[in-house]
Fold this protein.
Amino acid sequence: MPTKKPKPIVEYRNYYLPSSFPVLLLTGDNWKISDVRSEHLHFHNCLEVGICHTDSGTLEFCSAMTIPFSAGDVTCIPRNIPHTTYSALYTKSRWSYLFFDPRLLFRDMLPPDFNYSMIYDDIHKYLIPAGSSRRIALLAEAAVEELSAMNPDHMLVRSYLYVLYMEIIRFQNPKTQNMQPEIPPPPEKFPYLSRNSLNITPALDFIEDNYMNKFPVDLLAELCHMSPTHFRRNFQSAMHMAPLTYLNTIRIMNACNLLRNTNHTILTISEMTGFSTLSNFNRHFNQMMKVSPKEYRHQTLKGRKPGEIPSIIEYAGWLEPDEAPYPGKQEKAPERI
């Protein structure tokens, strides 16, 4: 009797993007990718644009689908698409990564009905080979160079990323008119049902876009075309937490963002992040952050130097504060991303 192939382990990586400038750069000589293939796929809460500076290797997605990369290539992987990267044998390819949320970064530059959808059904659209689009490579490198400066011009970076995003969309599908209103595709062409995405991707996207609203968990199951019981089982398997726990994690993460970067009252922030009452907000915040919202705001603002913004790192379902050297850049790096 043939043995059943084990399911790949999928990890969720949450990158904190400050509301004041929702961009994160990971770059430097430490950002070299191992030649050892990881047994784990991972996915992010935002768009990932990568620049391969040296050597070559492989991008791997769900269902063991792979695509080779080499120096000069640019990758563009939408949020919630499981993947992993590893270098060719005996090499360590060096990369720079830009993480940003187009919905937040460009919200006052595009019409409300702008179609932010990326292409999900063809992994080859996730890689722009060197030489196939000179503008995409130049714009990505320009954004990395500016963000690496001691005093980066955020307006300039935003302009680079705006044009980069439009160029990537055009590269992925030259015939798509992305200025059209967002109209959901018919069920038989629903993009999230591709082999490249998780079966709970529609729920993850919905939570990230609607965490501030009230909605039943059963709606998430319906979006994923599952029964509530089957959905909860799949969600727990992929995220290692229940749907409601994940929703509250996203809400608290955004509340931390607002506490750090705005002067809104704690009551207003609780309402802006979807909590029904202030006591409910305080209880969940204390459970996750181990301090009250008031104390959290006090701690993060106390002794803060000009230009410094604290970051939030998720570990095992918890959010922990840390300090970034300066806006938009993070130095510490793992072996792979």
Observations:
- The radius of gyration is 20 Å.
- The mean pLDDT is 81.
